[in-house]
């Protein structure tokens, strides 16, 4: 099951949201993101979180079976939503509305990608996408787009093709070594022998080409 999670950060454009919804079998809204969707005439399949950003009046308008209170304060609403999705059969999770606003929230949401590195989880925003690579992946893009590899710990045997500065089985460490590469083809292939790499794809144009 392909699951879209709309988080309560900077909201995506209507165009991107429509594209992501078309790719999803299930839509989860975390807390206040439900109101954003409601204002667009969209009712998610699930509203999940501590619900402290939603009024009781708003919740009363929603079908009761879609509201899933999750008051645990030891995890963020996004963390809870990913866990819920995996427990209910999600095989691919796309998150939007997870960046922008407070920098600590953005960094936390990116760190959550690390927590679920063994699953197909990515963040997609109007600026592009971010995902954790543990073995190998192909990222679709357009020549001229930016692709950065960000490391939080050393990674061994990193290979990267389809870009201006290719890598062949290289060991990388945290720092600026993998930042600001550039697509030369319509796809970049990344392989990691040991460790994890955060791949950040910055798009220059319409978001639907990366999906």
Tell me about this structure.
With 211 residues, this protein is an alpha/beta fold. The protein folds into two domains: 2-126, Rossmann fold (3-Layer(aba) Sandwich), CATH 3.40.50; 133-210, Rossmann fold, CATH 3.40.50. It has five helices and 14 strands. The strands form two sheets. The chain has a ten-stranded mixed beta sheet with strand order 4-3-2-1-5-6-7-14-9-12, sandwiched between helices. Strands 8-13-10-11 form a four-stranded antiparallel beta sheet, with no helix packed on it. α1 (14-22) links the parallel β1 and β2. The longest helix is centred in the middle third of the chain and has 13 residues, at 103-115. The chain starts with a strand and ends in a 9-residue tail after the last strand. 37% of the residues are buried.
Averaged pLDDT: 91
Work out the radius of gyration. 18 Å
Number of domains: 2
Q: List segments where confidence is low: pLDDT < 50 over at least 5 consecutive residues.
A: none
What's the level 1 CATH class of the largest domain?
Answer: Alpha Beta
Give the termini distance in whole angstroms. Answer: 16 Å
Name the helix and strand elements from N-terminus to C-terminus, one letter apiece.
EHEHEHEHEHEEEEEEEEE
Largest sheet: 10 strands, mixed
- Give the overall form: elongated
Biggest sheet: strands side by side, in what order? Answer: 4-3-2-1-5-6-7-14-9-12
Looking at the overall shape, the CATH architecture of the largest domain is: 3-Layer(aba) Sandwich
CATH topology of the largest domain: Rossmann fold
Helix/strand-derived category reads alpha/beta
The level of helicity is 10-25%
CATH superfamily of the largest domain: Thiamin pyrophosphokinase, catalytic domain
Amount of beta strand: 25-35%
How many beta-strand segments?
14
Number of helices: 5
């Amino acid at each position: 099951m392909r699951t879209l999670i709309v988080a309560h950060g900077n909201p995506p454009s209507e165009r991107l949201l429509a594209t992501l919804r078309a790719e999803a079998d299930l839509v989860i809204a975390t807390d206040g993101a439900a109101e954003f969707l409601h204002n667009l005439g969209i009712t998610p399949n699930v509203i999940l979180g501590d619900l402290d950003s939603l009024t009781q009046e708003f919740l009363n308008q929603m079908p009761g079976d879609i509201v899933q209170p999750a008051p645990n304060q030891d995890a963020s609403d996004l963390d809870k939503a990913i866990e819920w999705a995996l427990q209910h059969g999600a095989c691919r999770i796309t998150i939007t509305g997870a960046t922008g606003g407070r920098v600590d929230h953005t960094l936390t949401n990116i760190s959550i990608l690390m927590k679920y590195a063994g699953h197909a989880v990515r963040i997609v925003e109007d600026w592009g996408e971010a995902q954790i690579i543990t073995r190998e992946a192909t990222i679709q893009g357009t020549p001229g787009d930016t692709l950065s590899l960000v490391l939080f710990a050393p990674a061994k045997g990193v290979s990267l093709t389809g870009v201006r500065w290719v890598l062949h089985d290289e060991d990388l460490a945290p720092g600026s070594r993998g930042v600001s590469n550039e697509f030369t083809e319509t796809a970049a292939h990344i392989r990691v022998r040991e460790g994890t790499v955060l791949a950040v794809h910055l798009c220059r144009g319409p978001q639907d080409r990366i999906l």
